[in-house]
Amino acid sequence: MIRVTTFAGKSVAVFGLGASGIATAKALIAGGADVVASDDNAASCQAAADAGIATADFKDTNWATFDALILAPGIPLTHHEPHWAAHGAKLAGVEVIGDLELFVRERRKQDFEVPLIAITGTNGKSTTTALTAHILREAGRDVQVGGNIGTAMLLLEPFAPGRHYVVECSSYQIDLAPSLDPTVGVLLNVTPDHLDRHGTIENYAAVKARLVAGAQRAVVGVDDAYSRKIAGDLDEHRAGPLPEKIMRLSTRDSAQSDIGIDGTNVVLRRDGRTQAVADLAGIGSLRGSHNAENACAAAAALLMLPEPLSADEIARGMRSFPGLAHRMEELGRQDRTLFVNDSKATNADSARRALSSFGRIYWIAGGRPKAGGLAALAPHFPRIAKAYLIGEAEARFAKDLDGKLAYQRCTDLATATAAASRDALADGRPGAVVLLSPAAASFDQFANFEARGDAFRALVAQLKLPVNAAEPDQ
Q1: Which of 33, 143, 299, 426 could form a disulfide with 7 if both were Cys (CB 3.0 to 4.6 A apart)?
Q2: What is the rounded distance in angstroms from the CA atom of residue 448 to the CA atom of residue 344?
Q3: Which H, E and C letters describe the chain, residue by residue?
Q4: Phi and psi dihedrals of 125, rounded to 5?
């Protein structure tokens, strides 16, 4: 645990008592703060009390008695309206921040350098975070990895000389971290997401931009309009050779980028020369153009550290990267058919990345739909042999696909997996892929995308294909 001493002797309210909230309260208490915690859920309050944390009902509290409110990332800060606790604290002039802000304030108190790589983006941030940490670890560096990827930041090992931190940051966390100042900040991309929380895409992009604006050095993907504008806003501060203030990343346009892709190689472009950093050929865990972007971002971040890694260290780490569960996770093959779990693809843009990576796809899609449906995926329909639709999105997705490609309405994941597997194995040609890449949230039938991916993995592991003919195509 990282003890938070920046509030020692002060009174702090903590609201939102999930895993990160309880970790935050404990870290503050360990650092000498007087902490009172609360949650809208009585069971969560009881869990905190059982852990030795003082709790109270904040609805009648005098917010002026607190020095700060530490808000869990999932609690609305602004849109569509702020949570009542955040609203009350702000009215009383009490600062409202999150655990990421506590982390960076404590980091600045150290009398030694603490390298921090902070990574955000609409898509790809978890893979990039895991890949960056893996390469550092393989190169012999002392690494802690956490944040939005899993381990709460304040549960990481304490700051120590030579220890590197790689953290994934959601827009919610950045919104609650006004002084975020990583050694290297990485912004992969910005596409519409979480607009219910931020109100507009412009607000969402502005929050993402804060991570790189406060960074000592920044890596910014420039393959979407919002990220290009963010890079342009930072570019006036760019000067001299590496390490520069900003490194632009593009996998599409070499003229726009300082780091990108040439064939299968991650390449660095500077001083009119091109240097190969790593070859991605044959690395299954980094298959597809989206993973090429992730690999470029990881390489750029590691090259921009005060003590950078060498190209050989980066290439070696990429070759041994196992990948992440539920993100283009190759579950294995049966005959010539590959089974891939991409349950993390909870929106169309993320599913697009998976669909662009394969040729003959038996595609399982559906869940709780998000704005836009499947229209953005139309250019990839020729890659899809057939779609298998599930969940609340089934009727809507069927309408999107009607007359464009073959599909089957399956209602649930088990039915879809059996049907897709049967059809793919009957195909008999090389390159057939049964792909779970839902382009929708999981919450209609599963607790989260991990539970959905775990269910698919179990179904594939025990697969016994029926001999009866498939339901007729629509």
Answers
A1: 33
A2: 9
A3: CCCCCCCCCCEEEEECCCHHHHHHHHHHHHCCCEEEEECCCHHHHHHHHHCCCCECCHHHCCHHHCCEEEECCCCCCCCCCCCHHHHHHHHCCCEEECHHHHHHHHHHCCCCCCCEEEEECCCCHHHHHHHHHHHHHHCCCEEEEEECCCCCHHHCCCCCCCEEEEEECCHHHHHCCCCCCCCEEEECCCCCCCHHHHCCHHHHHHHHHHHHHCCCEEEEECCCHHHHHHHHHHHCCCCCCCCCCEEEEECCCHHHCCEEEECCEEEEEECCEEEEEEECCCCHHHCCHHHHHHHHHHHHHHHCCCCCCCHHHHHHHHHCCCCCCCCCEEEEEECCEEEEECCCCCCHHHHHHHHCCCCEEEEEEECECCCCCCHHHHHHHHHEEEEEEECCCHHHHHHHHCCCCCEEEEECHHHHHHHHHHHHHHHCCCCEEEEECCCCECCCCCCCHHHHHHHHHHHHHCCCCCCCCCCCCC
A4: -70, -35
* CB of 107 closer than 8 Å to CB of 114: yes
> Residue 460's closest CA among 431, 422, 430?
422
Q: Tokens 């890949």 map to which residue?
A: 131
**What is the distance between the alpha carbons of residues 97 and 203, in angstroms, rounded to a whole number?**
18
Q: Which residue has the higher pLDDT, 174 or 290?
A: 174
Q: pLDDT band at residue 253, thresholds of 50, 70 and 90? A: confident
Q: d(Cα 121, Cα 78) in Å, to the nearest integer? A: 20
In terms of C-beta density within 10 A (0-12 exposed, 13-18 middle, 19 or more buried), how is residue 316 classed? middle
pLDDT at 467: 45
Note the pTM of the prediction, 2 decimals: 0.83
- Does 150 score more than 90 pLDDT? no
Quick check: 218 and 233 in contact, CB under 8 A?
no
Q: Which two structure tokens, joined as six digits, stand for 76?
A: 């609305």
Separation between Cα atoms, residue 119 and residue 173, nearest integer Å: 11
Residues 120, 128: Cα–Cα separation, whole Å: 9
Burial of 255 (0-12, 13-18, 19+ CB in 10 A): exposed
84-136 confidence digits (pLDDT tens)? 999 999 999 999 999 999 999 999 999 999 999 999 998 889 999 999 999 99
pLDDT, position 243: 42
